[in-house]
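Hi V.,

Quick status before I head out on leave. The structure for the redesign project is tokenized and pasted below; the design run finished overnight.
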């Protein structure tokens, strides 16, 4: 067999199920080898960026990497935004690129560039295959690194001449091992700090929705009553209906949930990534007592200087704490203010449930209706824009990985390709992507991919005719905004041209029945609705009036 055949066999041995991408002549050998695979499905996309977003969502939902594929030069550069997004969102991913012959890599040559050097800053590892006999080791290492906490992207470049070389090597059998766990004495120290606290609070980060951590976290909260603040990416770590769910933190402004941190005498962070919500925003005076529990040691930061670090498998760490809770009765905590904050936030979430007016629809109303329609295991994917802020604050979850938000690299154009991948992984669930008109049109070409795959999904586009989040931020800082408006297509004609079913909603009363109807239709459906972004600055002013610590029960 040739090297490209061996590479495919190695990927099969690792259990790779999907490769998304746009091939070129430099990876033609690999594509012909892939065509013979019985276990790996190749999904042809309309842009490499869309392929990378699809690969990210597959990784986030399954915990296992898929592949995104591009050729050399522009194919590789088109991949990089989605790859960076996946890496910072901690999603396992294999990035597979072709390259010109090794005989011309040393000089100026058509489409030649240092692709490995380009990917190094946005991956956990990037390498070139120079000798086909090394492929088993390279693929085994790549998949292991992609899966290892914290997960991320790994890049393999296969030059076209190397792909053709005959080879006798065989794939390595994957061997996976239990991850390291914290030392008992350190866990004892952390547990003693928890016992002595009066108003502890938990910040649940991205790591809590991977592996088995959410189950152990729920047991810990049931036993202790300690409230949980979720980052945007940790929604569903505890059930939204649990009394210990204090909803979401992550907005740049002080919000009701953040008052729980202000009042806390101990902050327990679990699987927390600093890119999600910088500690300077919740520990500005650097005076919080912090227990850090994560797969890796804490990032060094002046506003995040934990007194104790529990480093190791997060689920096992929580299991160790649960064992101590069971064996040693904890004192009663003073958590009444947390209950009051949860009640106040719950009232805000319900405040616009009955809106049925004409004209643009309030974000709160749309998200209330969406939550009523979506089941506990259904999946919502948010693009990046003003709508993301509203989803983060107003859409909450029963289960982990049922609201997928990019919140590290934060790239627009994420929701439509991501929804396609989610529908492949979970065809039995309702899949809803929400995007602004700006973000949706950045990867609109993947509507054809969804139609070709007969993807069972609904895309909801909030229409405001401009870059709403940038306008919101400029208004907040400068009291005005620059020119950010743009035109839009005829949405229903756009849907028809791609073979989608299209719906336009003009008022709040019709929104829910139209969305329910879209979910009952076969194949992909597009729902467009005008959004009332006057609510943006109203929320900014309301958050600016949030009461100070010590008054949360009022």
């Amino acid at each position: 067999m040739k090297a490209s055949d061996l590479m495919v066999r190695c990927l099969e041995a690792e259990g790779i199920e999907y490769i998304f991408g746009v091939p070129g002549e430099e990876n033609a050998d690999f594509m012909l080898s892939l065509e013979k695979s019985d276990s790996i499905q190749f999904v042809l996309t309309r842009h490499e960026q869309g392929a990378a977003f699809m690969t990210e969502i597959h990784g986030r939902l399954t915990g296992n990497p898929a592949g995104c594929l591009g050729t050399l030069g522009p194919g590789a550069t088109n991949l990089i935004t989605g790859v960076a997004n996946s890496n910072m969102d901690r999603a396992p991913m294999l990035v597979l690129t072709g390259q010109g012959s090794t005989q011309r890599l040393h000089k100026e040559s058509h489409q030649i560039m240092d692709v490995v050097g380009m990917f190094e800053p946005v991956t956990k590892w990037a390498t070139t295959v120079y000798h086909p006999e090394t492929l088993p080791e390279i693929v085994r290492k790549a998949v292991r690194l992609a899966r290892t906490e914290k997960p991320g992207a790994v890049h393999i470049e296969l030059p076209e001449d190397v792909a053709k070389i005959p080879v006798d090597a065989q794939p390595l059998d994957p061997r996976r091992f239990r991850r390291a766990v914290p030392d008992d004495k350190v866990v004892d120290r952390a547990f003693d700090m928890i016992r002595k606290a009066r108003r502890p609070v938990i910040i649940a980060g991205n790591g809590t929705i991977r592996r088995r951590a959410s189950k152990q976290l729920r047991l810990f909260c049931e036993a202790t009553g300690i409230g949980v603040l979720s980052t945007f990416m940790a929604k569903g770590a505890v059930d939204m209906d649990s009394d210990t769910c204090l909803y979401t933190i992550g907005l740049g402004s002080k919000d009701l949930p953040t008052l729980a941190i202000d009042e806390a005498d101990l902050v327990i962070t679990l699987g927390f990534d600093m890119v999600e919500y910088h500690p300077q925003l919740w520990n500005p005076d650097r005076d919080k007592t912090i227990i850090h529990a994560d797969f890796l040691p804490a990032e060094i930061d002046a506003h995040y200087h934990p007194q104790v670090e529990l480093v190791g498998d997060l689920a096992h760490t929580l299991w160790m704490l649960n064992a101590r809770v069971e064996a040693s009765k904890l004192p009663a905590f003073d958590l009444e203010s947390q209950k009051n904050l949860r009640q106040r936030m719950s009232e805000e979430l319900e405040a616009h449930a009955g809106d049925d007016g004409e004209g643009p629809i309030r974000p709160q109303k749309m998200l209330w209706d969406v939550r009523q329609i979506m089941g506990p295991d259904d999946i919502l994917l948010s693009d990046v824009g003003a709508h993301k802020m509203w989803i983060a604050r107003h859409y909450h979850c029963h289960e982990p990985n049922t609201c997928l938000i990019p919140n590290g690299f934060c790239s627009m154009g994420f929701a439509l390709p991501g929804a396609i991948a989610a529908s492949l992984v979970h065809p039995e669930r309702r899949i809803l992507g929400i995007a602004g008109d700006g973000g949706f049109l950045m990867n609109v070409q993947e509507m054809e991919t969804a139609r070709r795959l007969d993807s069972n999904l609904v895309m909801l586009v909030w229409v405001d005719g401009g870059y709403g989040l940038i306008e919101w931020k400029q208004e907040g800082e400068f009291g005005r905004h620059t020119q950010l408006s743009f035109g839009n297509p005829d949405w229903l004609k756009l849907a028809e041209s791609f073979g989608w079913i299209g719906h336009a909603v003009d008022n709040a009363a019709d929104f829910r029945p139209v969305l329910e109807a879209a979910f009952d239709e076969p194949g992909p459906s597009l729902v467009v609705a005008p959004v009332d972004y006057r609510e943006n600055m109203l929320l900014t002013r309301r958050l600016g009036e949030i009461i100070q610590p010590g008054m949360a029960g009022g």
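Above is the designed sequence. The first helix runs from residue 3 to 13.

G. will cover questions while I'm gone.

Best,
W.
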